[in-house]
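hey so u asked for the seq, here:
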Amino acid sequence: MNIKLKKVQQKHLPLLIELAKSLHIEIEEETVTPYKKEFVAKILKGEKDLKDGKGVTIALEDLWK
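ran it, structure tokens below
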């Protein structure tokens, strides 16, 4: 049997996890995001590239030239 809990308050989550452990119930967490995996991967790669110095700096005055 599968049970899905929706709209669980963050403060109640530890209690539910402990209850499930004490009853030997397997817990599977699922994170819902409005973004596609490919989009998130592109954003994270871009942030990593900037940290690694692979970015380009453009002066504000030169932006529309």
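Residues 37-51 form the longest helix (15 residues). The mean pLDDT is 90.
lmk if thats what u needed
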